[in-house]
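Q: Is it fine to ask for two folds in a single conversation?
A: Yes, each is treated on its own. Send the first.
Q: Here.
A: Result:
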Amino acid sequence: MNRFLSGGARPKADIAIDLGTANTIVVKRGGGVIFDEPTVCCFDGSGASQALIAAGAAADRMVGRVTEGLRIARPLRGGVLSDIDAGRELLRYATSAGRPRWPGRRLRALIGVPADATQAERNALSTAAYDAGLANVELMAEPLLAAIGAGLDVAQPRGRMLVDCGAGTTEVVVISLGGICVAKSTRIGGETLDGALIDHLHLHHRFHIGSRNAEALKVQVLGLLEAGLMDAPVRIRGQNMATGLPATLELPCADLRVVYDRHLRDIVETISAALLETPPELSQDILEDGLTVTGGASMVGLLRTLITDATGLDTYSPAEPLRSVAAGLEMLLNEAV
């Protein structure tokens, strides 16, 4: 069993950071949320000569619209840091509001990471955080933080199952006595579903859309699927690849159902794999209590139905599922002594 909660005193931290693939939230001890913006940067140039032009919401408005010489960078891929330069600049920008007024003082930070992050991935994040001006960085498993933020009593000797569906990865854990007993993950999430929709239109309809349109399409189609409106028309604006001209494509909602089925099925299979490795005593607890789903996909009724059909388990979500990790970080931050 991996231990993440210590029975002894915790070191004080100044801020806590939920560095997500899609969005970053920074919480200040005693001050609440001081930053909540997209995890994206825009640079001018490349290599050692590149300069940060914008980050967060300002950079997000530039996605798909930059001119030659500018580069949009997303620090994380699949839930872990993949661009250390962009990660450093995003962290520096996101924590600027919490900086101490006196020089030479570094902020102490708690940062969430995927439970299955490798040591190399953890080291890369620690290095980026230090270069961004942070110190005494403590990395904690995001599913455990999400469980705490969702209100689960993780310290009890009782099995709790949590499914945390992020933009870049979905993690499934069984928690007992403050530690993770079973952990499974799949590198799929909200952004991979966006990409799957883009690929489907590209391959089957010779039609191209950007990431922003894919996000809007994902939400629109999901609403129709959950309402049972399989034959409802969906109008999509993008580029006709045969002519290269702007165009509008109209499809029945059912045409895109296969993309959602494949995506959600992978999540359900990951949950089933975790249950197969769960000891009988913990399985009994989960059967009695059900499982908790956090993150963006927790609001998808179709996913909850598929989970119940495949496992027989009831599913629950907290009031603010998108903020579960940040809520867990804030609780630990403010309880630290």
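Q: Second one now.
A: Result:
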Amino acid sequence: MAKDPTIAELFDLTGKTALVTGAVGYLGKAFAAALAEAGASVVCSSRDAGKAREFAAMLPVKGSAKHHGVGLDHMDLASLSQGFADAVKAGGKLDILVTSGHESCPHDWTNVTPEEFDRHLRNATGCFELSRKLREHVVGRKAPGSVIFIGSMYGVVASYPDVYEGMWTASPVAYHCLKGGIIHMTRHLAAYWAKDNVRVNCISPGPFPDKRAPDGVVQRLNKKLPMGRMGLPHELKGATVLLASDAGSYMTGQNIIIDGGWTAW
């Protein structure tokens, strides 16, 4: 009878290579660090290749892992294709994809233009194209793969108007549409790619504001949360490694919401 793998073995990413898009972003850094700390080689991407390489050089190295940085703009299909090819070349292979790259929408429902709305939804197109390339790459190698999309609690529930009123631009309707679509794309691709041994899951962070968020808005958000506080980037690490590793080998099509209880009431 075969011995069951230990917890340490299940979460170990030694020998795996991951591409993290938007790796130099506020949350992207946590996704990349989590994978590196678990033993993976990490290819960091950014629209600025220099920043990607600089950040990759700062990641912890476990065993024989090697980290790299490449330029990749997921809103530009030519850049996306070249960036993915560069990531494969740099890493030698790819096993894991985390789509943290994101171009924001500048306006809410009151003044967003149709052109801005359309452009924002192209974020989903970029995520899909990257995931399809990852699938083709791992299937061609006859290897398993893991895709981790980044959704949002705002892809599941509406925002409270009173949180933003008089202080900050309301949560953009285009963003809600985008993230809801990414969450459902997770389910769709998981159903179609399971036979290929490619798992597709999603992490949906709740409120993880950076320093740009006004203190007044943060205080209002805290009042809407059972835990009464904002999330910290490192609190996304556990779910990232779970979905990337054999610890999550029977998970696909799932959306893990990490929101301090926001969607619990």
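Q: Anything structural to flag on that second result?
A: Two points. The longest helix spans residues 114-141. Residues 163 and 217 are 6 Å apart (CA to CA).
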